[in-house]
Every structure is written in C-alpha cells, then in structure tokens.
C-alpha cells in the first residue's frame, strides 16, 4: 500500500499538458479514494466540466470541500444550482458551507428551497430551523414546532436537537415529553439518559399539575419502599407497548 502511494505521489509530479484524460482520471480518483483531497482537486479540475452533474463533478466538489477550499466548492454548487435547480448533494453542501462561514441568510434560503424538493430530509429541516432561530425568525420556528415530525422517525441526534429547540422556545413540557420518549426508544444509548437527566435538572417552571399531585393516575411515577427499604418503581402509562422490564404498567395491569 505504501509503495502504491509513493507511485501515485510521484505520478503527480509527472503531469504535463500531454497527460491523457484516462491517466488523469485514474490518478484523480485514486487520490480521492486515498482522501488526499487537495491533490485530487488539482487533478480532477483538469478534466471536469463543472456545469454538468456527473460523478467527476461531485468528486471534485467534495475534494474542494474536504481540503477547505470553500470558495471553489460554492462556485460549483452555484453553477449546478443555476443550471439544474436544487439538487442533492450540491444544495445541501452549499447550505452547510454557508452556514459554517456565517452566511445564514443565504443558507436558510437554500435549505428552504431544498426542503420543498426533498421534504422528507429531516437533517435539512433541522438545519433550516437552526438558521431561523439564529436569524430570530421565531414565528417560523414555532410553526415548525406546532407540527413536529413523528418522534418514531427521529434518530437520537435529531431527536435531541428537536428537544433543545423546544426548550429554547420555552416549550418545556413538550421538550420533556419528547425527551422521555427518546430515552425510552433509545434506552441503551447513554446520551439519551444523560440528556434526559440534564433537561430535568434545568431551571424552568413545571406545570402545577406536575408538582402539586393530589392523586395517582395515568402518567404517574410511583416509588414504594417495602419493609426492607427496597425501592420499587411503578410507571403508570396508558400505552399498548408497556414494558414491565422498564417498570412500565398500563392502568389495566393486575398490579395496578
């Protein structure tokens, strides 16, 4: 493998105007696969027509991106967008770059257009909400939070992002409810428990019916100590998938 790398690096220094397309293609794609993105970009740029949506264009785009040449990457994205409209991954990457460099207005516009064409892409939806929040367009954030995506479709990372967004918009009950469901769904994921605990310890005011409990019922957690002072927890929830291994019991369970 090391010998192969040495040969490729040597070949870079032998490129001339007479080097064939095929040789440049092989060298550029090999450099890309080796993650030598700066060298890959220098080779692929010689043979790529940047206004055509091809594998070469995408490899050149990501070579620019991963080597930190954001200006060249944006130029490709803008060219493709001008010719084809919104296309993934170009628009998605352009939005990400513009977000990174602080061009939030343009990033939000691109994410918004992207979301119209690719409405099921949750990652971009969350990126767009982040832009709206930074730009203080809270009405758009709240509109999104009024009808959030089904938590069953969320990864743990996107779920936590949604929880944090709810918290920032003072929707604490919604944030706790969602984080509870995420913790339950991703029970073996340590971050789910960490974020749930952190959220519950946050400084915010809970509803009166959460703190002034007069009777035990559905959506209650009961802790009982037996004669040996052993603790037993009973979480009473009206759900079809109650799991006794997690101390969950439906109101119809004999123990309740």
What is the average of the pLDDT values?
Answer: 87
* H/I helix tally: 13
Q: Estimate the helix proportion, in percent.
A: 55-70%
How many runs of DSSP E, i.e. beta strands?
3
Polypeptide structure, described:
With 256 residues, the chain is mostly helical. It has helices spanning 2-12, 21-33, 37-44, 55-66, 70-84, 90-100, 104-117, 122-134, 138-146, 156-168, 172-185, 190-200, 208-211, and strands spanning 220-225, 231-236, 248-249. It has a 3-stranded mixed β-sheet, with no helix packed on it. Strand 1 (220-225) and strand 2 form a beta hairpin. Helix 2 runs antiparallel to helix 3, helix 7 packs antiparallel against helix 8 (122-134) and helix 8 packs antiparallel against helix 9. The longest helix is centred in the N-terminal third of the chain and has 15 residues, at 70-84. The protein is elongated, with a radius of gyration of 26 Å. The mean pLDDT is 87.
Overview features:
three-stranded mixed beta sheet, 256 residues, mainly alpha, elongated, 5% strand, 58% helix
Quick recap:
With 256 residues, the protein is mostly helical.
SSE topology sketch:
Layout: H1 2-12, H2 21-33, H3 37-44, H4 55-66, H5 70-84, H6 90-100, H7 104-117, H8 122-134, H9 138-146, H10 156-168, H11 172-185, H12 190-200, H13 208-211, E1 220-225, E2 231-236, E3 248-249
Parallel strand pairs: 2-3
Antiparallel strand pairs: 1-2
Helix pairs in contact: 2-3, 3-4, 4-5, 5-6, 6-7, 7-8, 8-9, 8-10, 10-11, 11-12
């Amino acid at each position: 493998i090391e010998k192969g790398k040495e040969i490729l690096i040597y070949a870079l220094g032998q490129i001339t105007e007479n080097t064939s397309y095929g040789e440049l293609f092989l060298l550029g794609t090999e450099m890309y696969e080796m993650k030598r993105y700066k060298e890959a970009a220098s080779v692929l740029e010689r043979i790529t027509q940047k206004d055509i949506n091809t594998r070469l264009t995408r490899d050149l785009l990501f070579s620019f991106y991963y080597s930190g040449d954001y200006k060249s990457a944006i130029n490709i994205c803008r060219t493709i967008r001008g010719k084809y409209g919104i296309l993934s991954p170009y628009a998605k990457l352009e939005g990400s770059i513009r977000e990174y460099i602080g061009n939030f207005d343009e990033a939000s516009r691109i994410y918004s257009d992207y979301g119209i064409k690719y409405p099921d892409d949750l990652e971009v939806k969350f990126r767009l909400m982040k832009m709206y929040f930074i730009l203080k367009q809270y009405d758009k954030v709240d509109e999104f939070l009024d009808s959030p995506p089904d938590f069953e479709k969320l990864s743990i990372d996107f779920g936590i992002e949604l929880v944090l967004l709810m918290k920032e918009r003072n929707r604490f009950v919604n944030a706790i409810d969602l984080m509870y469901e995420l913790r339950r769904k991703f029970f073996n994921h340590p971050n789910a428990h960490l974020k749930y605990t952190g959220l519950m310890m946050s400084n915010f005011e809970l509803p009166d019916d959460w703190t002034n409990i007069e009777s035990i019922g559905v959506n209650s957690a009961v802790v009982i100590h037996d004669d040996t002072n052993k603790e037993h927890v009973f979480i009473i929830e009206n759900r079809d998938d109650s799991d006794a291994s997690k101390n969950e019991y439906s109101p119809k369970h004999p123990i309740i």
